[in-house]
Target: Phosphoribosylglycinamide formyltransferase, chloroplastic
Amino acid sequence: MEAQRLLSGFCSTSPIPNAKTQFFVKYSSPSSSTTSFAQSHKWVSFKARPLSTKLIKCTNTTHTETAEVVVSSDSYSQDSIGGILRKKLAVFVSGGGSNFRSIHEACLNGSILGDVVVLVASKQGCGGADYARDKSLPVIVFPKTKLEPDGISPADLVATLRGLEVDFVLLAGYLKLIPVELIQAYPISILNIHPSLLPAFGGKGNYGMKVHKAVIASGARYSGPTIHFVDEHYDTGRILAQRVVLVLAKDTAEELAARVLREEHALYVEVTKALCEERIIWREDGVPIIRSKENPAEYS
Ligand code: GRF
Model:
């Protein structure tokens, strides 16, 4: 892995056009799409991903009307802080989506220099998808299954995220395996949150309440969320941030889960903020660390 890399995006931003009915989004091709960042030994430059001209189907509410909405890169405002452009985020959920909500709210209140531009759900009917529809955010179902026939293919998922100029993908309680096509399309740009201190209590099958039950049964006195980069396997990508939560002697799994979840909300917002502000640095040995905003000489 290249040393000292700093994650960088390259997009300006705009909220997805409001649409209270089911709608289609049509992407326009950019006239020119090359943007590079200044290079130094600490930075790498990126080229803007070209927009594809594509008609995608997004689900929104129970209405059946359709409308065509043109999302053009030209229509995005150049909102930035200190030369750093706002980032576009795709959040993936399978359940209630409380982490998604806290990230979305932090984007809206200005804490995060970014916007959630699309919600990817593994099922139409989940709390996260309902919240997104309520907020007029496009909802995409992935993957396609017997129960979710409106789901899209991995290739269409990648094309859709690229069409929306998504910079970073945030998994927030998404239970399906991320296709290799997406991992290759978004190198070092996909984060996941796991409700234990990885590498403990992670891996396939370790999700939800099972994690907290296993933590309590093990006798561990500490638990807490981990945010890590996503690779081809479950919970094995590079650890970026953790928070410690006490496991109390008489904790039930539900009580521990609630305490960990509170920390998750704060941690995911904090990390997403750093990600969007390009404060994630890759140490020589390949470990990602976060530069403090208040004191740029400090890292965590
Ligand atoms: C969280 O505990 C997260 O760590 C795990 O799934 C849960 C999602 O919760 N990956 P929510 O849907 O964000 O409320």
Remarks:
- The chain has a mean pLDDT of 80.
- DSSP finds six helices and 16 strands in the chain.
- Residues 93, 95-99, 172-173, 193-195, 225, 261, 264 surround 5-O-phosphono-beta-D-ribofuranosylamine (CB under 6 Å).
- The two ends are 20 Å apart (CA to CA).
